[in-house]
Each structure stands twice: as structure tokens, then as C-alpha cells.
Amino acid sequence: MDVDTIWMDGEFVDWDEAQVHVLTHGLHYGSGIFEGVRCYDTEEGPAIFRWDEHLDRFYNSAKPYDMDIDHSREELTEATLELIERQDLQSCYIRPLAYYGYNSLGVSPQDCPTKTAIACWPWGTYLGEEALENGVDVMVSSWRKHASSQVPTNAKTTGLYVNSMLAGEEARRNDYVEAIVLNKEGNVAEGPGENIFLVNDGEIYTPGLAESILDGITRRTAITLARDLGYTVHDEAAISRGELYTADELFFTGSAAEITPIRSVDDVTIGPGERGPVTEEIQSKFFEVVERRTDDYDEWFTYP
Ligand code: PMP
User: Fold this and answer.
1) Is there a single domain that holds both residue 143 and residue 262?
2) Residue 37: C-alpha distances to residues 29, 31, 233 (Å)
3) The pTM is what?
4) What is the pLDDT of residues 105-123, one digit of tens each?
5) E-strand stretches of the chain
6) N or C: which end of the chain has fewer CB within 10 A?
7) Using a 6 Å cutoff on CB, does residue 31 contact ligand 1?
8) How far is the CA of 193 from the centre of ligand 1 (A)?
9) Does 156 participate in catalysis according to the annotation?
10) ipTM for the predicted complex
11) Are residues 273 and 133 located together in one domain of the fold?
């Protein structure tokens, strides 16, 4: 990975020195929270997409774990902008992370310090350049998503990603690009690192927050862009597995995955088996916005 400098607990440290102790609480119990944010290369220089919303989610994710992040929004923002500048990055992925450090190794994190770090690195398309144009082949995972009554699924918690890893790797072992994960009730929840949208008869549907999904920031973006383009969006939908196969179009959203069409599920062709017209319209609007080829939605960007 092409990273020279990492911000850790208030200091800029070299890659080699950005280390943690093996008895770190977060390593043993998954007690960390994190974000994944994209910074886009635009005519006005690097532009961080929806940084404020990512920061809101970062601090909110810490709440259920009673984790005190003792760095202000301003400090995290300045650190991130400086990392981008110091490493001369035009576009990058930004990974803020907070976790319980070492004290004693009981499950209780009492007296464990909260540690915070930020890294930035260049990152191309998540599911491949071709995926954005032609769509991906996915399978419904045999793993269910943890329910929001079991863990706070709206918190972006490191430990929860073993579920994403199991679902994603199961898909890749079976020659699919990605998985769709059902929730405990058997409804469609999301991808391992993406939210999901369905298009039927020109209207758009996406599972609501009560379906044990992460409140994705790209999900919110897609909803806003689609509504502004004149579409009806049902953002509290309960979607059954069967409805996936009969959808006119399906697509994933995520900071990493951006807007990726889905062309088949469990080898069943979705619609025409290629990126559908509604997906294409929302996707091209999305790239027009994030590449700042329009002045609209400028409030979504933070510039160094
Ligand atoms: N669901 C899960 C489980 C994720 O990990 C992500 C990626 N953060 C998303 C949805 C999409 O969220 P966002 O658009 O904020 O990246």
C-alpha cells in the first residue's frame, strides 16, 4: 500500500512506526469503529465527499460502545487535509479509525485508552472499472446479517466485518464478485460493504434502516440524486429475496463501490443483463457530481 505517513493520536508518524501492541483490546474483541471516505480529483483540486456526514457517523458509531474520541472534528479534519497535502494525493480513500487500546485483557474496556488513527491512500474502483459499466454477478449469501437487536448495525464497528468477510469470501470462492446478505427475517439487507437498490416499473426501492443495514452515505446520496432527477424512491422498503430475481434493475452503492450495477443474482439475469437505464442515469449524475463537473451539491465537498 502506498502510504508514507499516518496520523495516530495527534501525531504524524511514518508508515513503519504506525504500530499497535498485540494486546490491544480492539484486536482481541473487535472494539473499534471506522469510516471509509473518498476524496475525488476535481478541477478545484482534491475534494472530500460528504466529510461532515462521515464524521457524524464516526462519532455516532462510538456511542454504543461508550468510547470517547478525544479529538475534535476540527482536529480530525485538519489531520486528514494535511495527510492529503503531505502525500500529494489528488484522489484517495480515507480511513479514520478509533479503537480501545491496551489496559488489561478483560472484555470490559474499562481504563483502556481510546486510540485514533487516520490513513489515506490511492484506491481505484472497488469492484473493478469494468463493473461500473457492465455490472457484477452476485450471489445471495448463506450467511445472514446480524440483527440490529443483537448489535448496533448502524454503527460502523470493526468486529462486525467478520460477517462481511464471510459473505464476500463465500461469493468469491463460488466465482461471484460480491454477495447480497439477507437479514435475520430473511429480507434483503445489503452487500458486505454496500447498500442495495432495486428498480421496478420506473420506481426505486431500497431497504429501510430497520432492516439491520448501515445508514450508507452513498445510499443517502443516491436517494437525493434520484429524487432530484424526478424518480419516486421508497427508502423504507422491505424487499424479499424473490423480488431480487424479478427486478428490472439492481445496483449497489457505497463509498468504495460508488454506484455499481448488478447484472445477475444466483445466475439469474437481472433485466437485460447489463446496466439498466435508471442505474445509468443515477450513476452518471453521481460521477458528474463527485468529479465536480457541475456546481450543484457543492455543500457536499470539503476542499483542502
Ligand atoms: N453497508 C455496509 C455493511 C458497509 O460496510 C458500507 C460501506 N461503508 C455501506 C453499506 C455503504 O455505506 P457508505 O455509502 O457510507 O460507504
Assistant:
1) yes
2) 24, 20, 24
3) 0.97
4) 899 999 999 999 999 999 8
5) 5-8, 11-14, 32-34, 37-42, 45-49, 92-100, 114-121, 136-140, 178-182, 188-190, 195-200, 203-207, 233-237, 249-254, 258-265, 268-269, 301-302
6) N
7) no
8) 5
9) yes
10) 0.99
11) yes
